[in-house]
Amino acid sequence: MALRVAVIYGGRSGEHEISLRSAEAIIAALDPAKYEVHRILITREGRWEPRALSPEQGANPGIDVVFPVLHGTFGEDGTVQGLLELAGLPYVGAGVLASAVVNVGIRGGTITEVPAHPGEAFQLSINVPPDGRYTSYKLDLYSPQGAVEWSRTIPASGDGTLSIYIPGSDHEPGGLGVHGIAADGESVDLGRYPLELQNQK
User: Fold this and answer.
1) Is the CB of residue 190 less than 8 Å from the CB of residue 180?
2) Which one of 15, 74, 137, 172 is separated from 105 by 20 to 30 angstroms, measured CA to CA?
């Protein structure tokens, strides 16, 4: 009897298209004589098609094991793994804690303190763990109301440190958005981070 494998793919993150390609490659590699594949697509809007998995144990008949092929937030960060643990479904890959830790290590850049007063230009440094997938990074400076006020694209550095000079404004910035840009031009959302200017005495 073939093992019934639910392949979950797509997802709400900026890496949705990458997940689709990964899932197709994995499904093509599964021997149909050994594995019965059940596709579960998560749309960009978060809908599960043809149906969502239930966190209740025993409420997901017809599935022997789950193969999550999700990239980024809401899938690769321990969220889906937690759902599968609650449902009592065996799954492929790292567990909840390991997934969360690895996801932060890959995508969770850290913005250093900015030594400036509101209204002054300042130098900004961001520590983004090196990732060979990205040849450059797009930085978006947001206003406190969430509007993009300023954008720049800068080359990736070997040590993962990005440094850029940002012009001043009459208010503190509301945050910084970071996108990784791959060699083929694909843009991946790496998150938005809070940013506070530190007054100097």
Assistant:
1) yes
2) 172
Cβ contacts of residue 103 below 8 Å, gap of 6+? 72, 73, 76, 77, 78
Residue among 48, 33, 40 nearest 6 (CA): 40
Residue 6 CA from chain centroid, whole number: 22
DSSP H helices in 67-110:
79-87, 96-107
Distance of CA 83 to the CA centre of its chain: 18
Burial class of 25 by CB neighbour count within 10 A (0 to 12, 13 to 18, 19+):
exposed
Task: Give the span between the Cα atoms of 97 and 95, in whole angstroms.
Answer: 6
Q: Is pTM, for the whole model, over 0.70? A: no
**Range among 30-34, 104-108, 115-119, 187-191 with highest mean pLDDT value:** 30-34
Confidence (pLDDT) at 9: 97
Q: What is the CATH number of domain 3-106?
A: 3.40.50.20
| Structural domain spans, the chain | 3-106, 109-198
Which residues are within 8 A (CB) of 149 and not within 5 positions of it... i.e. 6 or more apart? 141, 142, 143, 169, 173
Query: What pLDDT is attached to residue 199?
Result: 45
pLDDT in tens, 80-128: 999 999 999 999 987 886 665 444 443 444 555 554 555 566 667 676 7
CB-hemisphere CA count at 13 Å for 110? 6
